[in-house]
Design goal:
This is YjjG family noncanonical pyrimidine nucleotidase. Keywords: Hydrolase. Its EC number is 3.1.3.5. This protein is an alpha/beta fold. The protein has 2 domains: 133 residues, Rossmann fold; 82 residues, Putative phosphatase, domain 2 (DNA polymerase, domain 1), CATH 1.10.150.240. Helix content is 48%, strand content 12%. It contains 9 helices and 6 strands. The chain has a 6-stranded parallel sheet with strand order 3-2-1-4-5-6, with helices on both faces. It is elongated and about 60 Å long.
């Protein structure tokens, strides 16, 4: 579908290539145990996972700061579990979470295979809203950094997806045009609609089992990218 049209493929990182939920699970398993936090991990994550997505949406929309995101997503979970925890401990856990998260290296099935498949014929890049200090570590520790030419993050751009500025910066750094660029990501709002507003082609990796839509083609396994490129 995009063969002969696309020269540059831009990926989101978290929830698209890097298995955020699995790595997050392992991180919480480690830091809650090490800090003697006596909560059921599955009950904790049942609240945390959707809550984290909602707080990231607020962060994308500039309604909360990075500091507030890191604190509130934990404080709210403990409140809902009716588990008293001091603010100092929340701050400690927030810092420990960031420190350990990027040490886990799980990627989605077929990530390396599809990057191997694409890299001989396309320039590959990353556009991420993740924090600059850990995104590079995630790529390095997962052994996929070498596949990517440009890695553009929201702190570098000064704005977050879906703001057009971050997509325009990525195009500029990649030396690409939107008409010959494809964005692949898990967020319909941030990745797909954001990229399409700038003129990118788009492919939605539906990692969250979202309802069907007609904004672009949808895939549920990264190996399906071969159908389009």
């Amino acid at each position: 579908m995009f063969k002969g049209v696309v020269t540059d493929v831009f990926f989101d990182l978290d929830h698209t290539l890097w298995d955020f939920e699995k790595n997050s699970y392992l991180t919480f398993e480690k830091i809650l145990a090490e800090n003697g936090i006596d909560v059921d991990l599955n009950s904790f994550l049942e609240i945390y996972v959707p809550l984290n997505l909602s707080f990231w949406k607020l962060y994308r929309e500039e309604k909360i700061s990075k500091t507030e995101l890191r604190y509130q997503r934990l404080k709210t979970v403990f409140d809902r579990l009716d588990y008293f925890i001091a603010d100092e401990t929340i701050d400690l856990l927030a810092n420990e979470y960031i420190r350990h998260l990027c040490t886990f290296d799980h990627v989605f099935p077929n990530t390396t295979e599809i990057l191997e498949y694409l890299s001989p014929n396309y320039k590959l890049h990353i556009i991420t809203n993740g924090f600059q200090e850990i995104q590079e570590k995630k790529l390095e520790n997962s052994n996929i950094r070498g596949y990517f030419d440009q890695v553009v993050n929201s702190e570098m751009a000064g704005v977050k997806k879906p703001n057009p500025i971050i997509f325009e910066l990525a195009l500029e750094r990649a030396g690409a045009t939107p008409q010959k660029s494809l964005m692949i990501g898990d967020s319909l709002e941030a990745d797909i609609m954001g990229a399409q507003a700038v003129g990118f082609h788009a492919l939605h990796f539906n990692a969250h089992n979202e309802p069907y839509h007609e904004y672009c083609q949808i895939i549920t396994d990264l190996s399906e990218i071969k159908t389009f490129l």
